[in-house]
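Hey forum,

I'm writing up a methods section and want to include a predicted complex as supplementary material. The small molecule is flavin-adenine dinucleotide. I've pasted the protein sequence and the SMILES. Can someone with a working setup run it? I'll credit the forum in the acknowledgements.
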Amino acid sequence: MEQSLYDIVILGCGPAGLSAAVNARIRNKRVIIVGAALCSPPLHKAQLINNYLGLPGITGQELLDSFMDHVDKMNLERTSMKADSIMEENGWFKILAGEEIITTRSIIIATGIPYKETLPAEESYLGKGLGYCATCDGPLYRGKDIIIIAHSSEAEHEANFMAEICHKVYYLPLYKGIGVLDQRVEIIYNKPAKILGQEYVEGLVFKDNQRLELDGIFILGGETSPERLISGLELDDKHIKVNRQQETNIPGIFAAGDCTGAPYQVAKSVGEGQVAGLNAARYVSEKNFVLSHR
Ligand SMILES: Cc1cc2nc3c(=O)[nH]c(=O)nc-3n(C[C@H](O)[C@H](O)[C@H](O)COP(=O)(O)OP(=O)(O)OC[C@H]3O[C@@H](n4cnc5c(N)ncnc54)[C@H](O)[C@@H]3O)c2cc1C
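Reply by user p_vandermeer:
Happy to help. C-alpha cells for the complex are below, copy them as they are.
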C-alpha cells in the first residue's frame, strides 16, 4: 500500500474540484486531485451551456476540456480513483482510495450531487451484507456468493478482484459497454428491485420477481454519499452543510459545488471551489502545516 503526504487533497474533478485545485495551487500548496477517470459526468453530458459568463453556446465537453487544459498547464497532480473513506488521526486526515492511503492536512469535498439509494432501504443493510467498497471488505466474503451492482465500469476492477476470493461473483451492470471481466464472473442483465433478508442480506429480488440467494451485495461505481466518506460530517438533508467560507463542521474539511446544494450549476461550482481552495490554503498556512513544495 502506497502512502503520500499533501497540504490539500481535493475529492472530485468536476468544475468545483478543478477550480479549488487551481486556486490552492496559486497559493503554493501541495495539492492532489482525486477523481474518477471521467471528470464530471454531468458536464460531459450537457449539450449546450448558455449561462456560463463569457462563453455562450459552449458545449459541456468543450468547457470541461478547457478546465482540464488549465489544470494540466499548472502541472497539478491528479489521480484517477475514488476516495472510499476518510479517517482523522493526530491532526492528519487519511484518505483510503483503492489500494492507496493519501495523507493530508486539509480536504475539499467536491463530489457532485449526493448519491441516491439504488435499492430500497439499502443503508439499513450497510455492514450487514451490503457494502460500497469490495476491495475493502473482500476478505469477509472469502468463499461466499456475492453480487456487484455496477453503476459504471469503475466496478469491473473490483469484480475481478472478488472473483479471486469468492465462491461466486455475479455482476449486474447498470451501464452500457462492459470492458474486461474475469471469466469466473457471471453477468446478469436484469433490474434489481429489493434486498432479501430481515436484518442481514440473504439475497436479491429482481424487477421480474426472480430471486438470487446471496451472502453479500456491493453497489459500486456510483457517486459517493458524503456521510459514507467520513462520519460526523454535518448534512443539510443530503447535502453537506457549509458556511460562506465553504467550511464544514469538521475543521480542515471544506466542501464545494453540487454536493453543498442547489442551484446545480457550473458557475456556482466554480465560485464555491475558488472560495474553498483559498480558505483551505489559508487554513494550512495558519496552522503552520505547510509541506515544502516540490
Ligand atoms: C444534462 C445536463 C445539463 C446541464 N446543463 C447545465 C447548464 O447548461 N448550465 C449549468 O450551469 N450547469 C449545467 N449542468 C449542471 C453542471 O454540470 C453541474 O452543476 C456541475 O458539473 C457540478 O460540478 P461539481 O464539480 O460540483 O460536480 P460534478 O461535475 O458532478 O463533479 C464531481 C466529480 O466528483 C467525482 N467523485 C464522486 N465521488 C468521488 C469520490 N468519492 N472520490 C473522488 N471523486 C469523486 C465524480 O465522479 C465527478 O467526476 C448540467 C448537468 C446535466 C446533467
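Some notes you might quote in the supplement: DSSP finds seven helices and 17 strands in the chain. The longest strand covers residues 100-109.
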